[in-house]
Design a protein that fits this description.
This protein has nine helices and no strands. It has one domain (23-147, 154-316). Helices cover 82% and strands 0% of the residues. α1 (2-63) packs antiparallel against α2 and α8 runs antiparallel to α9 (279-316). By secondary structure, the chain is an all-alpha fold.
Length: 318
């Protein structure tokens, strides 16, 4: 009787422990999958931003009367519609990480840009595109903020997952990386994309008015300042990753092209004389630089994904 009673008392306890362990695995699995969902949405939003920025530059060329951008513009409009549809599909499968209101605002902003854009003045066209990009950037920062959260809610486990006994915890590295690739670099890219659009417009009509002259001068100043800050931040992250961050070399490789672009805009577009550089030249050169920065963003996201996997591996070793 005593043995039977003991077995009855032990069984519920073991079952309770097993249920708790199963729940813990389920929670960890959900956290890991949410991280993957966040990364997927960030990638889709980055692609959308890239298309909208190109569309702004090409449409400004067409509004200035440069028909060489017409074919590119038609292609970009098709890409934009497909990218929006794809983002919505991703959003539906990620449990409300993007709200219905966010999605509706994006569709409304794009519909406003697309509707009778040929009748827009260049300032309205520029601002409508910029407003849509700002909406996407707000979403990007919000999703990146969610990714900054520790992998485990358990303080002791969180301390271990932060990187163990390394000199600089992995969790802090991830926060710095996300700030770099989801805030600082996208801001730099947008400044350059604005320079691209305004330079294309000016080169297409052969002159620049006072309003766009002031805007370009401000953007050139901001871009130079931001470039110096980004280089310093890339060096810091590169040290944290023991020389394994591709951004630093990418920045060095693109530095001369960036300086050439900024100097050419300043000395040609803003000279007050006839503009000698063609609109397609400005578009192509700026796009080459912007694409390098987008590649750095992609590499940074791959690093974040690797850290997610390392966090899971560390948790399983607890």
């Amino acid at each position: 009787m005593l043995e039977a009673r003991s077995s009855l008392e032990i069984a519920p306890s073991a079952a309770g422990m097993q249920d708790a362990e199963t729940t813990e695995y389920q929670v960890t699995c959900c956290l890991y999958r949410q991280g993957d969902d966040l990364l997927s949405l960030i990638i889709q939003i980055n692609q959308l931003i890239k298309v909208v920025q190109k569309h702004r530059g090409a449409s400004m060329g067409v509004l200035a009367g440069d028909e060489s951008f017409t074919k590119d513009l038609d292609t970009l409009q098709q890409h934009m519609a497909r990218r929006l549809a794809m983002l919505e599909c991703f959003a539906r499968s990620t449990g409300g990480l993007l709200s219905d209101r966010d999605k509706q605002n994006l569709h409304l902003a794009w519909a406003t840009i697309r509707h009778d854009w040929q009748d827009d003045n260049v300032s309205d066209n520029f601002e409508l595109h910029t407003h849509l990009i700002e909406q996407l950037q707000v979403m990007l920062v919000s999703l990146a903020k969610k990714l900054e959260q520790p992998f485990s809610a358990d303080p002791e486990a969180g301390e271990a997952l932060a990187g163990g006994d390394t000199a600089y915890p992995r969790h802090f590295k991830k926060i710095e990386m996300l700030n770099f690739i989801a805030r600082q670099l996208p801001d730099m890219i947008e400044q350059l994309a604005k320079v691209r659009g305004l330079s294309v417009y000016a080169a297409s009509i052969g002159s620049v008015d006072f309003y766009n002259d002031r805007k370009l001068r401000f953007l050139l100043q901001c871009t130079r300042e931001q470039s110096d800050k980004l280089r310093g931040q890339a060096e810091r992250i590169n040290e944290q990753l023991a020389g394994g961050f591709s951004a630093l070399q990418a920045f060095k490789n693109i530095e001369l092209k960036l300086l050439y672009l900024l100097n050419t805009v300043e000395q040609d577009v803003l000279s007050g004389l006839d503009i000698s550089t063609g609109s397609q030249q400005y578009f192509t050169l700026a796009t080459e630089i912007i694409d390098v920065y987008w590649k750095v963003v992609s590499d940074g996201l791959l690093q974040v994904r690797q850290w997610q996997q390392e966090d899971l591996d560390d948790w399983l070793r607890q």
